[in-house]
Amino acid sequence: MLAEIAHTGRHFMNGDEACAEGAIAAGCRFFGGYPITPSTEIAEHLARRLPEVDGVFVQMEDELASMAVILGASAGGARAMTATSGPGFSLMLENIGLGIMLELPCVVINVQRGSPSTGLPTMPGQSDVMQARWGSHGDYESVAFAPWSPQEMFDLTIHCFNVADRFRIPVFLLADEVVGHMVERVVIPPAGEIEWWERKHAQVKPGEEFKPFLIEDADLIPPIVHAGEGYHIHYTGLTHDARGYPDMTASTHHELVTRLIEKVRVNREQIIRTEGYDLEDADVLVIAYGCTARSARHAVRAARQEGIRAGLLRLISIWPFAEEQIVSLANQTRSVIVAEMNLGQISREVERCIHRPVRGVFHAGGAMIPPEPILQAIREESA
Prior knowledge:
This protein has helices spanning 15-25, 40-49, 63-75, 86-102, 129-134, 150-167, 177-181, 250-265, 268-271, 291-305, 323-332, 346-354, 371-382; strands spanning 9-14, 28-33, 56-59, 79-84, 106-114, 120-124, 144-145, 170-176, 183-188, 274-277, 284-288, 310-315, 317-319, 335-340, 359-362. α1 (15-25) packs parallel to α6 and α10 (291-305) packs across α13 (371-382). The protein has 2 domains: 9-193, Rossmann fold; 274-382, Rossmann fold (3-Layer(aba) Sandwich), CATH 3.40.50. The protein has 383 residues and is an alpha/beta fold.
């Protein structure tokens, strides 16, 4: 199915274009979105590419409708996505909560920019990471990844679709303007090498008794059926029972919401991704993600040349949080530095985990954090 649509080979493209090609390679056949800088190139690219692969591109009237329409496409069996930036992401959050409640897999790309409000439309930021975790109301778990290169924009977009389908959850790709507009080499592998995780489909035949939210497996993920396949299914944002029908009891609500959280927590080892550099003997631990991790890696290398034993933990997945690994590394190091293009968001999460203060290298956005302030922090923490 993917052989004729993957542009196999080496290309020079920006991160937004790589994301769009990753979506095509992943089997995405529906995009509903509203253009917003700095993610617009994703929509532009897919507007051209999706019709070439018998897909559907719809420019919606706003971001509320964009999120709603990809949930409908997912319910019909399509791999579906949208792309936005901070202001649009804010508008999507109500329907993101609906997607979590309905357990409909989809992918939301947020190419972050300087915030809040309209902020800096053409300049980078990383200030939506906590919004991705807590932005919609209620208790739930989020799944979010942060690429640091155009190649990872391609690779992680594919991975987002796989994770969404396996765990029946909306998945976020938290890119930033630097990575979205950066042009680098992107290698698109042959279609046969692209990983594909199937949705867990119901084993009963259409017409047989079927409870769409009945849990029978230890992974806490119900099997899915799609509109048009002949099954009777009811979707509602209300608290619902195994049949999908509203059940206004506290016990059912507690059971349902607990399961929605636990299905991510019990499978967290399949979701969490990190990458380490020079961690084996590190005295100073640097934690970073997205484009900031590129500067952090440069700073760690420079510190090593000065004889300072520094190491970098790059968070590829932001949510669920790599708590166990961070605690383990912090227990082996003297100091912890968190570099991020906001005024301290993931740093607070790190402090919550390790129960001690961390050194922050922050910038509110608008410009990528260069290696120099990270290197200076490493020097001071190692003194």
